[in-house]
Amino acid sequence: MDNKIEIKKLIISSSPHLLNTDSTKSIMWTVSIFLMPACIFGIYVFGLYAGLVVLVSIISSILAEIISQLARKKKITIDDGSAFLTGLLLGMNMPPSVPLYIPIISSIFAIVIVKQAFGGLGQNWANPAIAGRVFALVAWSKQMTTWQTPFVADSLTTATPLLALKSALLERGGNVNIGPIQLLQSLPSDFLRTETTYLKLFFGYKGGCIGEISIFLLLLAALYLIIRKIITLEIPLSYIGTVAIIAWVFDGTRFGLGFFNGDPLFHILTGGLVLGAFFMATDMVTTPITVKGRIIFGIGCGIITMLIRMFGGLPEGVSLSILFMNMLTPAIDRFIKIKPLGFYPKKE
């Protein structure tokens, strides 16, 4: 018998130890590809200038990535698709008639300040596209809240459903005793400029940012990414569910309808909630690593979104809520920890 003991060299690495064939590159390009239908629909609705806004945003993000990596003497990694996806998401979050210098500067801010200054992909403290959008909103509030009427070639301005609703409530002083859809339908045609129904809100016939208007196409893309397990459901469900519950319980009070008479479907179908919940709040780098942590993250996003929608000066709060919860992610991970495999708590 051979008494020699075979010594094998084992590789010690940090968790997770799950084998997955998906690479960062494949994930980024897959998400980008499946966001394209919603983006193209927005360009179809608002015109070719909206496509130029998205294109400029993508090109600016890629160039900013190249220049910043050259300055840092790092390997050029634009082929991983992360800069492309940042530019695409930022462009989709822009109003269709926004001046081109805004997506250019915002893309540079997102890549250089939020991403590369902190070490590049995987080390950024916030979703770069979200941070770039909030930066633009703070720096150019007027341009970022000027909206275009769907299918009108002369860029006739309009209001988004959320903005029109907030303006109507302020003008009438509340106690209108009708729901949001009925209130919007009662507005003069020269104010909202398009009829508001649930179907039109769902399919995208409304004012808004370029890539957020078609809930239908965004949900189709999200469904594929969920099946591929690129997106998990903890954040989207807790986020949208929290918005729905708060809207149902409390939002009816703004209309004189009392508690438990709000319209959650209206809040789900308007603004950037679906785009934000499925494609921006689920960023792997800037969200908690545990299931409980991600649920807390989603609930926090939902609460902040509804506080802004109901009581804030802005009609929409998706971007701000995600950015705020990105900053809280380290604290969530600190207090919601994974129990080590085989760990048994000491009995007192």
Q: Could you characterize what this model shows?
A:
The structure is a single chain. The protein is an all-alpha fold. It has a two-stranded antiparallel ribbon. It folds into 2 domains: 24-144, no CATH class; 160-335, no CATH class. The longest helix is centred in the first third of the chain and has 24 residues, at 48-71. The protein has helices spanning 24-46, 48-71, 82-92, 101-115, 128-139, 141-144, 161-172, 180-185, 189-192, 198-203, 215-227, 234-250, 264-269, 273-279, 291-311, 318-335, and strands spanning 147-148, 157-158. α1 (24-46) packs antiparallel against α11 (215-227) and α12 packs antiparallel against α14 (273-279).
The number of helical elements comes to 16
- The figure for the number of domains is 2
Rg (CA only): 22 Å
Low-confidence stretches: none
Oligomer: single chain
Q: What spatial order of strands do you see in the largest sheet?
A: 1-2
- What structural category characterises the helix and strand content? mainly alpha
| Mean of pLDDT | 89
Q: How many strands, which pairing sense, and closed or not: the largest β-sheet? A: 2 strands, antiparallel
Helix content: 55-70%
Number of strands: 2
State the shape: globular
**Beta-strand residue percentage:** under 5%
- Summarize the helix and strand pattern as letters: HHHHHHEEHHHHHHHHHH
End-to-end separation: 50 Å
